[in-house]
Backbone:
C-alpha cells in the first residue's frame, strides 16, 4: 500500500477528492437502475446508506469503504480537499432520496421517479465531470451568510504590526494551502496561518467554509480583500498591491 498523508477515517476534515466521485458513481448508477426498472426499494436503501455514512463515519459508507480499502491502496492517494462541500452534497442526496421514497410509497409515483431521476442525473454528472452541484450549493449558501467577515479581532487571530497582513485559513494536507504558503514566502508578504482543525472556534465565528481562504486584513482588523482557491497571478498581484499600498 502506498503511504497516505491523511487517514481516511480519522482525518475527517479533508477527503481524497476521488472518493466522493466513486460514491457519486455508485449512488447515481443504482438510482438510475431504480428509475429505469421501476425498482422502488433501491431508493430508500440508498438514502439509508448515505445517512449511515454521514452519521457514523466513512467506514460505514460502503462505496467509500470500497474506495479506501480497494482502489486507493492500488492507485495511491489523490489530491485532498475540504470535506465539508461533498458532505453537504450527501445531505442533499439523503433529502432527495428520502422524499422520492416517501412519494413512491404514498402513491405519487411521478414525483417519486422525478426526484429519483434527479439524484441519478446529478450524481452521475458529478462522477463523470467533477461538477458537484451539491458542493456548489454549499459554497453559495455560506457566501449568502456573509462568509467573508468584514472585521476580525486582530489579537484573536494573531495579527502583528502595522499595515496589511495576509491571514490564511488552512487545513492539514491542503495542497493549495501549501502552494499559497510558498508563494507568500517567495513574495515576502506578511502573513499569518490559522489551522482550521486547531481553531474550530474561529471557523465557526468567522464562517470559514473551505480552505484555503486568504483574507487581507488591516492592523485594525478590517477585511479589505478575500482570495480563495489555488494561487493565481492576478490574486497574488492583488495581495502584493494591498500590502505595499
Residues:
Amino acid at each position: 500500500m502506498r503511504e497516505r498523508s491523511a487517514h481516511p477515517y480519522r482525518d475527517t476534515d479533508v477527503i481524497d477528492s476521488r472518493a466522493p466521485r466513486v460514491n457519486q458513481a455508485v449512488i447515481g448508477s443504482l438510482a438510475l437502475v431504480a428509475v429505469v426498472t421501476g425498482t422502488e426499494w433501491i431508493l430508500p436503501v440508498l438514502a439509508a446508506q448515505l445517512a449511515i455514512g454521514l452519521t457514523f463515519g466513512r467506514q460505514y459508507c460502503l462505496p467509500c469503504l470500497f474506495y479506501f480499502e480497494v482502489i486507493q491502496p492500488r492507485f495511491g492517494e489523490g489530491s485532498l480537499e475540504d470535506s465539508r462541500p461533498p458532505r453537504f452534497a450527501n445531505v442533499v442526496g439523503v433529502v432527495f432520496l428520502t422524499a422520492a421514497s416517501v412519494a413512491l410509497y404514498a402513491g405519487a409515483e411521478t414525483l417519486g421517479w422525478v426526484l429519483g431521476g434527479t439524484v441519478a442525473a446529478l450524481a452521475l454528472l458529478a462522477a463523470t465531470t467533477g461538477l458537484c452541484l451539491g458542493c456548489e450549493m454549499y459554497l453559495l449558501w455560506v457566501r449568502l451568510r456573509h462568509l467573508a467577515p468584514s472585521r476580525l479581532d486582530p489579537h484573536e487571530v494573531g495579527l502583528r504590526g502595522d499595515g496589511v497582513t495576509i491571514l490564511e485559513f488552512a487545513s492539514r494536507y491542503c495542497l493549495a494551502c501549501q502552494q499559497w504558503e510558498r508563494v507568500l514566502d517567495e513574495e515576502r508578504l506578511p502573513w499569518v496561518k490559522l489551522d482550521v482543525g486547531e481553531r474550530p472556534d474561529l471557523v465557526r465565528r468567522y464562517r470559514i467554509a473551505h480552505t484555503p481562504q486568504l483574507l487581507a486584513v488591516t492592523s485594525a482588523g478590517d477585511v479589505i480583500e478575500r482570495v480563495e482557491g489555488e494561487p493565481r497571478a492576478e490574486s497574488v498581484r492583488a495581495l502584493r498591491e494591498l500590502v505595499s499600498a
